[in-house]
Amino acid sequence: MVQVGIEAMNVFGGSAYVDVMELAEYRKLDLQRFNNLMMKEKTVALPCEDPVTFAVNAAKPILDSLSEDERSKIELLITCTESGIDFGKSLSTYVHDYLKLSRNCRLFEIKQACYSGTAGLQMASGLVLSQLSPGAKALVISTDISRFLLIGDSDAMSMDWSFAEPSGGAGAVAMLISDNPRIFQIDRGASGYYTYEVMDTCRPVPDSEAGDADLSLMSYLDCCQNSFNHYQKRVEGADFLKTFDFLAFHTPFGGMVKGAHRTMLRRLHRMNPAAIEEDFERRVSDSLIFCQRVGNIMGGTLFLALASLIDKASIKEPKRVGCFSYGSGCASEFFSGVITSESQKELKQLNIEGHLNQRYKLSMKEYTQLLEGSSAVKFGTRSAVIDPEMLAAARSRGLDKCLFLKEINEFHRRYEWS
Amino acid sequence: MTEEIIWNEVRKNIAEILPSVDVNGIKSNDRLVDLGANSVDRVEIVTLTLEGLNLTIPPHELAKANNLGDLVEILLKKASL
Question: Class of the A5-417 domain?
Answer without folding.
Answer: alpha beta
